[in-house]
Specification:
The structure holds two protein chains of two kinds.
Chain A: H1 13-48, H2 53-67, E1 72-79, E2 82-89, E3 102-103, H3 106-114, E4 118-121, E5 139-144, E6 155-161, H4 169-206, H5 211-226, E7 230-237, E8 240-247, E9 259-260, H6 267-271, E10 276-279, E11 285-293, E12 296-304, H7 313-351, H8 361-374, E13 379-387, H9 390-397, H10 399-416, E14 422-427, E15 430-436, H11 441-456, E16 459-461, E17 464-466, E18 470-478, H12 484-500, E19 506-508, H13 511-530, E20 536-545, E21 550-562, E22 566-568, H14 570-580, H15 583-604, E23 611-615, H16 618-621, H17 628-634, E24 642-647, H18 657-665, E25 669-675, H19 681-687, E26 692-695, H20 697-702, H21 709-723, E27 727-730, H22 736-745, E28 749-750, H23 761-772
Parallel strand pairs in A: 18-19, 21-23, 23-24, 24-25, 25-26, 26-27, 27-28
Antiparallel strand pairs in A: 1-2, 1-6, 2-3, 4-5, 5-6, 7-8, 7-12, 8-9, 10-11, 11-12, 13-15, 13-18, 14-15, 16-17, 20-21, 20-28, 21-22
Helix pairs in contact in A: 1-2, 1-4, 2-4, 4-5, 4-7, 5-7, 9-10, 10-11, 12-13, 13-14, 15-17
Chain B: E1 2-3, E2 10-16, H1 21-33, E3 43-48, H2 54-64, E4 69-74, E5 78-80, E6 83-85, E7 91-97, E8 102-109, H3 115-130, E9 137-144, H4 151-162, E10 168-172, E11 184-186, E12 189-191, E13 194-202, E14 208-211, E15 215-216, E16 221-222, E17 225-227, E18 230-234, E19 237-238, H5 239-245, E20 263-273, E21 279-286, E22 292-294, E23 303-308, H6 311-326, E24 334-339, H7 340-346, H8 350-361, E25 366-371, E26 374-377, E27 384-385, E28 389-393
Parallel strand pairs in B: 3-4, 9-10, 24-25
Antiparallel strand pairs in B: 1-8, 2-7, 3-7, 4-11, 5-6, 5-25, 8-13, 9-13, 10-26, 11-12, 14-28, 15-23, 16-23, 17-18, 18-19, 18-22, 20-21, 20-23, 21-22, 24-28, 26-27
Helix pairs in contact in B: 1-2, 3-4, 6-8
The chains are: A alpha+beta, B alpha+beta.
């Protein structure tokens, strides 16, 4: 401290000078004491200030440079005979010390081996790194950063002064203490930062619902948390380890995966759920951490150290925590995947027809509405069709063959469908084709034709070749007025109209069809109540022995008198009854009426030996629809006097042979109605115990046509009947010429308007009475 | 990057007091270019009062100096060739050509937010501009916004790129004592909250010297309470009280050249005790709220002393500084960064200082400005000073 102002008296100069010198010394000592204290406090403050591990090291080295006036302060890692600098204050950032390292000098080596700090003044050449090669007066201090054999063995704190003072033993003490504190702080903060990072990223991992992307994220996190260049994740399945994700700097490129898990280093530890730290294949340190589930290893986290430095305790701990996060996340994603797959399967099942994989009814309805909404033309076309002879195939070749046929048909139809169209199966043999963007009826008929063509080639089925045609109903729906349900209803109606006109037809729904459709719907619902409301009645058409014109039998025919429409023709309401299932109660009622009437007539006219013919539907012969024999017996007639008339179209999916056999055994006779109209006629004759053939009215009507074809057919039918010991009955005799021709061919029995129309009970009774008196019958 | 061809550097200095930015710039630049004999300058330094329309001024200089690296700062007065331009006016331009020097210009902004990061970016930019070839001797010349951020942190960032072997010289920009806004110049750009660096490559050693001439007036004290630039406690007691207790007696005869702004008390400052016992000066002032402030934050728990000085010491130390950088060579110019606090204390003797510095420099012109902080980093990382004079010869 310099004093200012006036000097004291001259005689006091000497004293003052001495005092000043003492003061300067005292001041110097105080400054040194304060400086030493201050540097300790500054270092402790820096180490205690919250920051990232990297920043902590950076700040500490800067403060060390300041408070020790060191030109270079660095943390270095000794690997073999090189010293690699990992952080410094005083070296330029591009110094090779960071990448290729310095030669490890003898003093640094001694410090590492002994674990004791060292200081030198006038550092010898081999202890001076390249940046200080010219600094011959340099001083240096080497401080080991951790005990020998511990995690950081080989790490040094080194300070250089290019031309400064010696580092004193007191300096070394301070530096040792600071180095220890700094490293403890760095380690604690590294761990804290890693845990924090993990805590942030952990929940993020669980959000991955796909294992692939989960592992891709996890491996990046793993590399970050372990502070390595190379990290990868192996999945382990069936004792094979497979590379699943890598955050890697050209690592293990030559390695072939999968590899047996047992070949992984430290597999014994891993399979016990413990991490492995040790040398890898190329002696670089390797950290492997198992990801466990149900006591088994499902994956392995792997990280490779950059240099020959082992993984610290905290790194291993953090990786173990990551592994447990990952285990949970993998389970999550797998659960999700299974759930998703099940949902998709459920949805597929709900929306797809299981047999063909086509859309089902529900999906179709949805798509029709969508197509209407999205169609550029504002319209959508719909074809509703079924296969004309499918039930016959089913009956003949069995259900499995039927299913196979449906699959084949679906396969052909798929080729017809254009992109954007939708083909659906509605069950049974019903299909729907949605034509998006249809603009007029031509589009529908064109598509209908394509369907017909697609089906025109025979289908190979169980060694046979089956012909299939489709009856197609088409409708064009317009946005704003049409709906899926209305279009389906109308197309369905049009299909029935097509079917009514024969096989392989296409009917476009129009206003007429619309009315028919509505009629049909009304009739359907009315019919279900007709029986209860007493609107049904039975009429009887006589069947005569043609030679004598004597009534031998009656055919019971149902009649429906609709309160508004009047009489509804049987060919209209019987198919409806068959469709709706109303045929079962109606059929049973007709049979009951007919049998009771027969019993009545037999009592009154025992000499006539009357029998009764009753039409029967296939449905009535199926199991679960009551026992027809009970009805017959309850009416008090001999089953042998009853002829059940079945049609060739009697397709049924049920096995009806049991009921047929029982009826036949009881004496009931079966006759085949409309014989000759179906290609399968002869096969029917083999399958059912038929005893009579009814020659269809079409053949009878054709008997007198030019060319004589009709007559030939009738003759042929009669020959078939004769050869099978069956009776032949002619239907629909309307003219004398037909009667003569039949008599000429030797036909025994017949019916028709020429002989008698269907009669009421009363008129029938009268007719029976009339023929008692010889010569009065017509 | 500029590479000079001529072995002997040529240098010119020009000044102007014209109130018009364009005229002042043209006049000063013309004068600076004249001794170059038509050679294109490689380095142009510009020091200017904040009163100027700075963008116009810099555009004018840059336009007249072609491809030269242009750098500089606003000042609180300039000194050039033995003359002093007082704070509040003037522009001074240096033009240098030849001498085998290489220059790389860089700049960085965001000092307030992160001075370390800015320093690192600044040095990298300047080094990049130098290209891949390194020179046997290098130094970094910097100008920083003197009112933005922690200047030692800026230096810490630069140090990461330069390492200990490349000295740093320079100054913080000033604003004629208004303590309002200071700017630095990079090319024709005028920047705030920024720093500019010129990485200099040289065939001969570049010596950086900084000296202050201050003496302690107190015993060592512990800086026990500090909050950024506010000093709260010294040795566990209220800082202002302790600070004022240690003022030296006033010299009633001293005359001030300028009225002091605010509570600025330029005769006293803090000295940060360095490991070798030397002091790093930190200027201090008492603000309007009666708080004791420094221009740049001091590290907490530093050992400090209150320091003071007298004019004679300051003049002497200035001469020593210039002599130390010239050292018998015949440089083309001596760059000087002189603290405005020193000018305050020197009062009328500021002109004497300018003259004596030039005498110390011999034939080489002196060229400098009065700063709000000086950079002279040679040993260790510490290198930001206050109330100091720093110099380097080219």
């Amino acid at each position: 401290m310099t004093t200012y102002g006036e000097s004291p008296a001259a005689r006091l100069d000497a004293d003052a000078e001495a005092l000043r010198a003492a003061l300067t010394r005292a001041e110097g000592a105080a400054a040194a004491a304060y400086r030493d204290t201050a540097r300790l406090i500054r270092l402790l403050t820096v180490i205690g200030t919250p920051s990232t591990p990297g920043r902590l090291i950076d700040r500490t080295l800067t403060v060390l440079s300041e408070v020790f006036a060191a030109d270079v302060v660095c943390i270095a890692e000794a690997i073999d005979d090189r010293l690699f600098v990992t952080a410094s204050c005083g070296l330029p950032e591009d110094d090779p010390a960071f990448t290729t390292g310095w030669a490890l000098g003898p003093t640094a080596r001694r410090v590492i081996t002994s674990g004791s700090a060292a200081a030198l003044h006038g550092v010898p050449t081999d202890d001076r790194p390249p940046p200080l090669h010219e600094a011959e007066n340099a001083s240096a201090a080497w401080i080991p950063l951790s005990g020998v054999g511990s995690e950081f063995a080989g790490d040094l704190l080194v300070l250089y002064r290019s031309g400064g003072d010696l580092f004193t033993p007191a300096d070394l003490q301070v530096l040792l203490s600071m180095a220890y504190r700094m490293y403890s702080a760095v380690e604690a903060r590294e761990r804290g930062a890693a845990i924090e990072r993990l805590a942030q990223a952990g929940p993020g991992l669980a959000r991955h619902l796909d294992v692939g992307s989960l592992l891709n994220d996890a491996v990046v996190l793993l590399r970050e948390l372990t502070g390595t260049d190379s990290a990868w994740i192996l999945t382990v399945r069936d004792e094979l380890a497979e590379m699943a994700a890598a955050a890697d700097v050209g690592e293990d490129t030559n390695r072939r995966w999968p590899t047996p898990a047992a070949d992984l280093p430290g597999w014994a530890r891993l399979s016990a759920g413990e991490p492995y730290v040790g040398p890898g294949r190329d002696d670089d340190p390797l950290l492997l951490v198992p990801v466990m589930r149900d006591d088994g290893v499902i994956a392995v986290l792997a990280a490779k150290g950059r240099r020959a430095r082992s993984f610290g305790k905290s790194v291993v701990e953090v990786a173990v925590v990551l592994a447990s996060y990952l285990s949970a996340a993998i389970s999550n994603s797998e659960l999700y995947r299974r759930l998703k797959a099940r949902e998709q399967e459920l949805h597929r099942r709900a929306s797809r027809d299981p047999l063909t994989g086509l859309a089902n009814r529900m999906t179709a309805a949805q798509r029709i509405d969508e197509a209407l909404a999205e169609s550029p033309t504002g319209a959508a076309g719909l074809l509703f069709f079924d296969l004309d002879k499918f039930k016959a195939v089913n009956d003949r070749l069995g259900h499995e063959a039927g299913d196979e046929l449906i699959q084949q048909v679906a396969q052909r139809l798929r080729k017809v469908v254009r992109p954007g169209d939708m083909l659906a199966r509605f069950g049974g043999d019903e299909f729907v084709l949605l034509i998006s963007g249809a603009s007029d009826l031509t589009d529908l008929t064109d598509m209908g034709r394509r369907i017909q063509v697609a089906l025109s080639d025979e289908f190979p089925l169980r060694g046979e070749r089956v012909e299939v045609t489709a009856s197609i109903g088409a409708v064009l729906g317009r946005r704003g007025t049409a709906s899926a349900s209305a279009m389906l209803r109308d197309a369905d109606a049009a299909m029935y109209a097509a079917k009514a006109r024969g096989t392989g037809r296409l009917e476009v729904f129009d206003d007429e069809a619309s009315h028919r459709s509505i009629d049909r719907l009304d009739l359907r619902s009315d019919l279900s109540e007709a029986l209860d409301r007493g609107q049904l009645s039975v009429v009887y058409q006589p069947m005569v022995e043609l030679k004598t014109n004597t009534i031998r039998s009656f055919e019971a025919l149902a009649r429906w008198r609709h309160p508004e429409r009047g009489n509804v023709p049987p060919d209209e309401f019987i198919p409806l009854a068959e469709e709706t299932g109303a045929i079962v109660p109606i059929g049973a009622w007709v049979l009951d009426q007919a049998c009771r009437q027969l019993a009545t007539w037999q009592r009154e006219f025992p000499e006539a030996h009357l029998t009764m013919g009753v039409n029967i539907s296939a449905v009535q012969l199926e199991r679960g629809h009551g026992d027809l024999l009970d009805v017959i017996r309850a009416a008090g007639v001999d089953p042998g006097d009853i002829w059940l008339e079945v049609t060739e179209h009697m397709d049924t999916s049920e096995d009806i042979s049991a009921q047929v056999s029982a009826l036949r055994a009881a004496g009931v006779h079966f006759a085949l109605d409309d014989f000759g109209m179906s290609y399968s006629s002869l096969s029917y004759l083999q399958r059912y115990p038929v005893e009579g053939l009814k020659i269809d009215r079409a053949f009878v009507a054709a008997m007198n046509d030019a060319g004589n074809g009709g007559r030939g057919i009738v003759q042929a039918i009669m020959a078939v009947a004769d050869s099978l010991s069956m009776m032949a009955f002619a239907e629909g005799i309307e003219t004398q010429a037909q009667l003569d021709a039949l008599l000429d061919l030797g036909c025994g029995f017949g019916q028709g308007h020429l002989i008698s129309p269907p009669l009421s009970v009363e008129r029938s009774t009268e007719a029976l009475r009339a023929q008692r008196v010889p010569g009065t019958s017509g | 990057m500029r590479v000079l061809t001529s072995k002997k550097a040529m240098c010119g200095v020009g000044t102007s007091n014209d109130a018009d930015a364009r005229l002042a710039a043209e006049t000063a630049t013309d004068e600076a270019l004249r001794p170059l004999d038509g050679s294109t300058p490689d380095l142009v330094l510009v020091y200017a009062s904040v009163r100027y329309d700075l963008p116009t001024l810099l555009k004018t200089v840059a336009a007249a100096t072609g491809s030269a690296v242009v750098a500089g700062a606003t000042s609180s007065g300039q000194l050039h060739h033995g003359r002093l331009t007082e704070p509040g006016s003037g522009v001074a331009v240096l033009a240098l050509a030849g001498g085998g020097y290489r220059f790389g210009l860089g700049h960085a902004t965001g000092l307030q937010a992160d001075a370390t990061q800015a320093g690192r970016a600044l040095a990298r930019a300047a080094l990049d501009a130098m290209g891949p070839v390194r020179s046997p001797h290098e130094a970094v010349l910097i100008f920083s916004d003197g009112l933005a951020g922690d200047q030692q942190e800026l230096l810490n960032g630069i140090h990461k790129v330069t390492g200990f072997q490349v000295p740093v010289i320079g100054g913080a920009a000033a604003d004629d004592r208004q303590l309002a806004e200071t700017f630095v110049f990079a090319g024709d750009r005028v920047l705030k909250d920024a720093a500019v660096a010129v990485w200099i490559g040289s065939e001969r050693p570049l010596r950086v010297v900084g000296k202050h001439g201050w003496r302690a007036t107190s015993l060592p004290l512990m800086l026990s309470g500090v909050d950024g630039q506010i000093v709260k406690e010294l040795g566990g007691r209220p800082a202002l009280e302790v600070y004022q207790e240690n003022f030296r007696p006033l010299d009633p005869t001293a005359k001030k050249l300028y009225q002091k702004a605010g509570g600025y008390h330029s005769e006293h400052a803090f000295g940060l005790i360095q490991p070798d016992g030397s002091l790093l000066i930190r200027g201090a002032f008492i603000d309007g709220d009666g708080k004791l402030r420094t221009f740049s934050p001091m590290p907490p728990y530093s050992a400090v002393q209150v320091v003071s000085c007298d004019a004679e010491d300051l003049l002497e130390v200035g001469e020593q500084t210039v002599e130390a950088v010239v050292q018998g060579d015949e440089p083309a110019v001596v760059l000087v960064f002189d603290c405005v606090a020193r000018l305050d204390i020197l009062g009328q003797r500021g002109h004497e200082e300018a003259r004596r510095l030039q005498e110390a420099a011999g034939d080489a012109p002196t060229f400098g400005y009065y700063t709000y902080g000086e950079f002279a980093r040679t040993t260790g990382v510490a290198g930001y000073h206050n109330a100091t004079i720093a110099a380097m010869a080219l």
